[in-house]
Amino acid sequence: SSDLSSKVQFGAVRYSDAPETLFRLKDHGTKSSLTAVLRNDRHKGGNTYTARALQHSKEHLFTERAGSRSRSGVPQILIVLTDGDSHDKAQLNDTAKSLRDSGVRIYAIGINHTNTEELLAMAGSPEDRKS
User: Fold this and answer.
1) Whole-model pTM?
2) What mean pLDDT comes out for the span 20-26?
3) Parallel/antiparallel/unpaired status of strands 20-23 and 12-14
4) Labelling 74: which of 27, 46, 121, 129 has CA 20 to 30 A away?
5) What are phi and psi of 13, to 5 degrees?
6) How far apart (Å, rounded) are the C-alpha atoms in residues 28 and 89?
7) CA–CA distance, 91 with 68 (Å, rounded to integer)
C-alpha cells in the first residue's frame, strides 16, 4: 500500500441523473484504500448528465477544502469516462470551458457509443489547453 498523499491525489465522482462524490482529493493517502473504494463501487444506471457532473466536480473536487493544491502549482486534471449522449449537452460547452478556465485540464474518454463532439467539447481545442 504505497503512499500517494505527497505525490498524487485522486477524487472520484459517479454520475448519471445526479452526480455523487465517491471521495475527495484528500480522502485517500494510500493506493490500497483508493483501490478498495473503486472496486466496491457499482454502476448506478440512469441517464447521462455530463454538464452536471462537470459543475459538481468544479464545486466539490477542485477546491482547497477538498484537497486541491492548485495554488501550489499542482496540475488539476479531470478524466471523464462517459458512455452515451449527455441529456444536458446544451450546457456542456460552457460548463467545460468554465472548468478549463479555472485551470483544470479535462481528458474525455468515450466508452461504447459516445458522441465525439461532446468529448471534444469537454477537452477543448488545442488553443483552449493551458500548458
Assistant:
1) 0.83
2) 85
3) antiparallel
4) 121
5) -125, 130
6) 32
7) 25
Copy the grid coordinates of residue 4: 500517494
- Report the mean per-residue pLDDT for the chain: 85
Q: Answer whether 26's CB lies under 8 Å from 67's CB.
A: yes
Tell me which residue of 108, 105, 73 sits closest to 89, measured CA to CA.
108
The cell numbers describing 8, all together, are 498524487
Cα gap 112→85, rounded to integer Å: 11
Concatenate the DSSP letters of all residues of 28-93 into one string. --BHHHHHHHHHH-----S---HHHHHHHHHHHTSSTTTT--GGGT--EEEEEEE-S--TTHHHHH
Q: Is 119 helix (H, G, I), strand (E, B) or coil?
A: helix
